[in-house]
Amino acid sequence: MSAQTTFDSIDQLALALESVGYFAERRLITAVFLSLRLERPLLLEGEPGVGKTELAKALAKVLNRPLIRLQCYDGMEQREALYEWNYTAQLLHMRAAAAHVSPEELEREVYQPRFLVKRPLLQALQTDAPGALLLIDEVDRADEPFEAFLLEYLGEYQVSIPELGTITANATPVTLLTSNRTRDLNDAVKRRCLYQWMDYPDRARELAVVRSQVPQASAHLSEQVAEFVARLRSQPFVSAFQRAPGIAESVEWAKALVALDTLTLDPEVIQDTAGILFKQREDIAAITPLLNDLLAPAAVNLASL
Question: Fewer beta carbons within 10 Å, N or C terminal of the chain?
């Protein structure tokens, strides 16, 4: 399906996302559709690895919009998100023009858009139609003053620059915010956004993702990967790990198994490749005594397919 700027139905949007390898449940697709239709930011919360950032990438493709990413972190300042002045260029201009213009005129000249270094928020606002897709990634990593700074953008798609005034969007940006919920976000931010909690995919959707992203894997191996990872994330196994594998880990694991010419899962190959599924030493150690239980149900389920 070719990229387009609007979608007439939830089903049409779902098919478009599937065409670029993103398989989502209907509740999530509905939230995205309403965000597009109502021109409201969408806040996505969920565990790391459930596909929040990948949704933004896939949506940018199907909407044919440039993806602009603002990666948040502790201590982020407004100038890193919005703009800063090119002080070197301003200084050179002041030196060259000082002899020819009055101090008042010189001050006005140095605060012109051509001396402005645009950061993601300003880039998104000044992208021409159909507009940009702005991903404000891991907003929970930033601090509360930064959340307050975002309110004008989220509520009105505009920002205020003291030297230039208010800058409004050339075309309304599609805006996605993601949060791993390391802390609760301010209610003022949530009120300006539509909200969707994202969970790990069920076995069928994970299998569709693996088949789409790793087409060289056999049907049997893809089914085993999806079944095994689904079992890892289910009770009582999930309590044994610090963090369950995300979708990205499932895909990378399938690619690794293909590279090893694996035909079927067994305890040895799982132990040898556990570092792809888990990123903590304790989790890699914890999987060993669970392998028989994890593989036995998978074998029963696969035999019934």
Answer: C
Which stretches does DSSP call E strand in the chain?
42-46, 67-71, 83-85, 116-118, 133-137, 158-161, 165-168, 174-179, 194-198
> In angstroms, rounded to a whole number, what is the distance separating the alpha carbons of residues 57 and 66?
9
**Domains in the chain: boundaries:** 10-78+122-198, 83-118, 203-300
Pick the CATH number of 10-78+122-198 from 3.40.50.300, 3.90.110.10, 3.90.850.10, 3.20.20.80: 3.40.50.300
pLDDT one-digit tens code per residue, 14-50: 999 999 999 999 999 999 999 999 999 999 999 998 9
DSSP code at position 163: T
User: Measured between alpha carbons, how far apart are the two ends of the chain, in Å?
Assistant: 30
∠ CA 36-39-40, rounded to 5°: 100
Residue 180 near residue 50, CB atoms below 8 Å = no
Tell the residue number behind the tokens 């931010």, with chain if given: 189
Question: What's the predicted TM-score (pTM) here?
Answer: 0.85
159 in helix, strand or coil? strand
